[in-house]
Design goal:
Largest sheet: 8 strands, parallel, barrel
Shape: globular
Helix content: 25-40%
Number of domains: 4
CATH topology of the largest domain: TIM Barrel
CATH superfamily of the largest domain: Glycosidases
CATH architecture of the largest domain: Alpha-Beta Barrel
Distance between the termini: 27 Å
Length: about 775
């Protein structure tokens, strides 16, 4: 099935979900799972036009009622009327409900009552009720809410997502959408990564060039004309409005200005505040760049001025000042910085970074704020005023918490939402280490190494969606949802109450709500994947393909067809691997107990031509390599396709177990990409071979894996093609050739030898052919 076909099928699948009734036997369909639920008998029917009452003169209750009505209008299709008086749906203040975020929700035959002492408690009670009003997807109809008593409060106070608007700028309207859908599952912290090498997105009125220059970058070239500049920024007025909007939904915006590294956009705008006062371009490469902020007195004063404007816009307690991936080469090579280290009585560059963090932490403390940074700020000694966000695993959190510092867990790669959600071939851009819905759900935010009495320092956890490879709002949403629901439950619900099987049941209506709200929600956790039993050569020789079907998340029953029709809940149920003659296309989808498709159908073509073809998603790393990323053809492409799996350190990919006794020809489709990865100290890991021609070659070898393992074996070169001039050739082209008669199966390696300064090449698709190549 083509990508457009998959998208159409997804819409049909979700339309079925929204239109079809479902029943939930024991658990109410609430995500995240409440602390306590006591079910009763009977219930209360909420009809179109029902009133939501709240105390007159209570703006917090009024905001919660308004938000409830807005969600129900979109998700259920009925209109509720907030009003400052008594009604059958009532929001009330009750000091007996302890905790700002705690609430009590009761439903009986007389009506529905949400009680809380704090504004956020009323808000979260309203969000729970909005979920109860849309469990069966019967849009536009009255709903019977089952009698129940719910007592609820969160386990952690930091339940967050990071949105990286620095690498790829997102319109402010798209940030609003994320805030709305965070509120729906009680996530309460949006960490905005506002600055990086590739862009400065926060307007600083005292330093306008930060956005005039630092807000725009020229994309890297893959040969030929360079595309238009990418960028943008948010005015302070826009951000103040966003902060107010988020606050009404219980979401705190935590801004991040990244220092001392990730500062190339700053250096481009104000070179006098960089180490060597040179003026680079705003960065267009991803990864780690060498430019650092200059910690001289004038630089410290500059950042304090920026902080002054930042805290005027963002009232959050925490201000994030980065501290990550600051390679210290510039500081090491600067006589002035070295003199400063000596004058301060310090010994290392890491201690200088800690000194700098302490300057800003003390400054923020004097204004009633607290500094938080990435775990690298521990390396030179952690200032007393600082809190730590641990991303390099959990070690930083353990160390900081045991020292008495507050911590937020955000370990890579697990809570990095730019990692792919599945290994399906139609996944979008991202890093290739799959972080599944289940893996994220099962994460425990209190690491084992934290002393019991220090566990109170764990504020919570957040998922980070870095945007090097997420360009469009839809790609960002795809990365967040539905994994945001797993993060919500992991940080809200009690550890001993969490249950992944129950979560899968409860997240289905939440997915439908997000879809109803217009969000792009990934279905990879529930989609059918295919695994050919044995090799492709085995299937071709036996003229029979045996294929196992499975979904990543253990939910639903797989139904399939072999006749070209789309599967339904009435199609045959999958039980054991299917054995079919080559030429049959298997189409399959999983269905829940009510007959609703949980994902769009996926297809597997068993034709001989398909079995001889491998796309980029089906290629493997060459010996000694590792595929890292799935990236688009051009760095800022608004389209979802095409995308390519690549190894940053070796422009070589392999066709595993090629049936060389069958194949007699090949056509390899090649893509030329911009080489835009800042590898910093990892440059030595690059394994690009030396080019033998002006622009390099594509060298295709058999027995490459065996030769890598045994030096006495010599690889067989079956093709060598000079690469064209990048300035004159298109970004996609192909080469064809013949394969000599060989026995059995072997890996084919496709090695590009383009110069390290040239664009990056990779394989889009390899088609092997039977008989002589044309």
């Amino acid at each position: 099935m083509g990508k457009s076909g998959v998208r159409r099928a997804r819409h049909l699948a979700w339309a079925a979900l929204l239109a079809s009734p479902a029943s939930f036997a024991q658990e109410l369909p609430i995500t995240p799972l409440p602390a306590s639920v006591t079910l009763g008998t009977g219930g209360y029917t909420v009809r179109d036009g029902a009133a939501i009452g709240f105390p007159e003169g209570d703006p917090g209750a009024a905001a919660a009622a308004k938000l409830l009505a807005a969600h129900v209008k979109i998700e259920r299709g009925i209109t509720l009327a907030p009003q400052p008086n008594t009604a059958a749906i009532q929001l009330v203040r009750d000091d007996a409900v302890a905790g700002e975020e705690a609430y009590r929700l009761t439903v009986d035959a007389k009506g529905i009552r949400i009680s809380a002492s704090g504004d956020h408690g009323l808000l979260y009670g309203a969000m729970t009720l909005s979920q109860l009003l849309s469990p069966d997807r019967a849009f536009g109809k009255s709903v019977l809410v089952r009698s129940a008593a719910i007592e609820d409060a969160p386990r952690f106070r930091w339940r967050g997502l990071l949105m990286d608007v620095a690498r790829h700028f997102q319109p402010i309207e798209e940030v609003y959408k994320i805030v709305d859908q965070m509120a729906s599952v009680k996530l309460n912290t949006l960490h905005l990564h506002l600055t990086d090498d590739q862009g400065w997105r926060f307007e600083v009125k005292r330093y306008p060039k930060l956005t005039e220059i630092g807000g725009w970058r020229t994309p890297p070239s893959s040969g030929g004309p360079v595309g238009p500049k990418h960028g943008g920024f948010y005015t302070q007025e826009q951000l103040k409005a966003l902060v107010a909007y988020a606050a009404e939904r219980g979401v705190t915006i935590v801004p991040e200005i990244d220092l001392p590294g990730h500062a190339q956009a700053l250096a481009a705008a104000y070179p006098e505040f960089s180490v060597f006062a040179d003026a680079p371009e705003v960065g267009h490469d991803w990864g780690v760049m060498p430019y650092l902020f200059n910690p001289a007195p004038e630089g410290i004063a500059f950042i304090k001025n920026v902080i002054d404007e930042l805290i005027e816009v963002f009232p959050s307690t925490y201000i994030h000042l980065g501290g990550d991936e600051a390679i210290k080469d510039q500081w090491e090579r600067s006589p002035k910085v070295q003199a400063q280290i000596k004058a301060l009585g310090l010994k290392t560059e890491n201690q200088l970074q800690s000194w700098m963090i302490e300057q800003f932490g003390t400054y923020l403390a004097g204004k009633g704020r607290r500094l938080i940074g990435w775990d690298e700020i521990l390396e030179g000694g952690l200032p007393a005023s600082a809190s730590v966000m641990s991303w390099r695993g959990e070690k930083g959190a353990v160390e900081a918490a045991n020292q008495g510092h507050d911590v937020v867990l955000s370990p890579a790669p697990l809570l990095y939402l730019d990692q792919l959600q599945s290994n399906l071939p139609d996944e979008l851009n991202g890093r290739l280490a799959v972080q599944s819905l289940e893996k994220i759900y099962r994460y425990e935010p209190v690491p084992a190494g934290i002393d019991a009495e220090k566990a109170k320092h764990v504020l919570g956890a957040q998922g980070n969606a870095w945007s090097e490879y997420m360009i469009t709002p839809q790609q960002v949403q795809h990365a967040y949802f539905p994994r945001a629901a797993a993060i919500a439950e992991m940080t809200w619900s009690a550890k001993d109450r969490r249950d992944f099987a129950g979560f899968l049941d409860r997240v289905q209506p939440q997915i439908a709500r997000w879809r109803r709200s217009g969000m792009e929600v990934a279905d990879g956790a529930f989609a059918v994947g295919y695994q050919l039993q044995g090799s492709r050569g085995d299937a071709l020789r036996a003229n029979k393909a045996t294929v196992a079907l499975a979904t990543q998340a253990p939910y639903g029953t797989i139904h399939y067809t072999l006749d070209g029709r789309e599967p339904t809940a009435k199609s045959p149920a999958y039980k054991v691997p299917l054995s079919v003659k080559p030429g049959v296309t298997i189409r399959a989808a999983a269905f829940d107990r009510n007959g609703n498709a949980t994902a769009a159908p996926r297809a597997f073509d068993t034709s001989r031509a398909a079995l001889l073809t491998r796309t980029t998603s089906e290629m493997a790393a060459c010996p000694g390599g590792s595929l890292y990323l799935r990236i688009p053809l051009t760095p800022d492409s608004p389209a979802n396709t095409p995308v390519y799996n690549v190894d940053l350190f070796n422009t070589c990919t392999a066709y595993p177990a090629a049936p060389l006794d069958i194949a007699r020809g090949f056509t390899v489709s090649v893509a030329r990409l911009a080489r835009h990865w800042g590898l910093a100290h990892d440059t030595s890991r690059r394994r690009d071979p030396y080019p033998a021609t002006m622009h390099g070659e594509l060298v295709i070898t058999a027995r490459c894996t065996a030769a890598a393992a045994d030096k006495s074996i010599k690889p067989i070169v079956i093709g060598s093609f000079a690469l064209p001039d990048p300035e004159k050739a298109p970004n996609q082209f192909s080469f064809s050739g013949t394969i000599p008669e060989m026995q059995g199966e072997d890996d084919l390696c496709f090695q590009f030898t383009s110069p390290a300064s040239a664009p990056f090449y990779t394989v889009e698709k390899v088609v092997l052919t039977e008989g002589a190549a044309k």
